[in-house]
Specification:
This protein is mainly beta. The protein has a single domain, classed as Beta Barrel (Lipocalin). Helices cover 9% and strands 53% of the residues. The protein is built from 1 helix and 14 strands. A hairpin with a 2-residue loop joins strand 1 and strand 2.
Length: 197
C-alpha cells in the first residue's frame, strides 16, 4: 500500500514539474501614431480640400448610366473664421452652379452647416473624411456625400421617394415582438470622381 501511495505522489510531482509555468507579461499600451495606422495625413477637413476640382458626373437609374455630364467644384476660405465658400457646377454653364457657404458649427464633433443663403440650411456630418447630409425635398429623400479619397473627392447622391416601397414585420411570433420595418426606395444615383485642376 505504501508503494502504491509513493508511486501516486511521485507521478503527481512529475506532472507538476512537467507543466509549463505561466508567467505574466506586462504589456505597455501606447497610442499608435497616425503613420503606423497608415492614415493619410492629407485629409484634414476642410483645409486639405481647398481648391478647384473637376470630373464627370454619372447619373444612374436602375443598373445603367443614363447620363454623363461635366462637374466642377470650388472650395475656398472666406474672410470669416470657420466659413468656406463651397460651389458645385453641373454641366458647362455657370447657371447650373450651386453656391453654398460651409459653416463650422462644432468641428470636434463633426457638425457643419451647408447654407444656401436663401433660407435653406442643411446640417452636415463629418465622419472621418466623409461629409454627409440627409434630407427630404418635395417628397424626395436625398442622401448626399462628399468623400476625400487620396487625391480625389468622390461626390455621391442617392435619391428616392419619401414613401416606403414596402412595410414588413410588425408582428408577434410567440414571445417575440418583431418591429415594423419600412424599406425606402432609391431610384437615382449620381456619382463623380473629382480631381484637382
Amino acid at each position: 500500500m505504501k508503494t502504491l501511495k509513493f508511486i501516486l505522489i511521485a507521478t503527481a510531482l512529475t506532472l507538476v514539474a512537467c507543466t509549463p509555468k505561466v508567467t505574466e507579461k506586462v504589456l505597455k499600451l501606447t497610442s499608435p501614431s497616425p503613420n503606423s495606422l497608415n492614415v493619410n495625413l492629407d485629409t484634414k477637413f476642410p483645409d486639405s480640400w481647398l481648391g478647384k476640382w473637376k470630373g464627370e458626373l454619372k447619373i444612374s437609374k436602375g443598373s445603367g448610366v443614363a447620363q454623363t455630364l461635366p462637374m466642377s467644384m470650388s472650395i475656398e476660405k472666406t474672410d470669416k473664421a470657420g466659413e468656406y465658400s463651397w460651389a458645385t457646377i453641373f454641366g458647362d454653364k455657370a447657371e447650373t452652379s450651386k453656391p453654398y457657404r460651409l459653416k463650422t458649427l462644432d468641428a470636434a464633433n463633426g457638425l457643419y452647416l451647408m447654407d444656401e443663403e436663401n433660407s435653406i440650411k442643411l446640417e452636415s456630418y463629418l465622419f472621418e473624411n466623409k461629409l454627409v447630409s440627409w434630407y427630404v425635398v418635395q417628397g424626395t429623400m436625398i442622401l448626399a456625400s462628399f468623400e476625400k479619397r487620396g487625391s480625389q473627392i468622390v461626390f455621391e447622391i442617392l435619391a428616392g421617394k419619401e414613401d416606403p416601397i414596402s412595410i414588413t414585420g410588425g408582428k408577434e411570433t410567440g414571445e417575440d415582438v418583431i418591429p415594423e420595418v419600412k424599406t425606402m426606395p432609391f431610384t437615382v444615383m449620381q456619382r463623380a470622381y473629382l480631381s484637382r485642376e
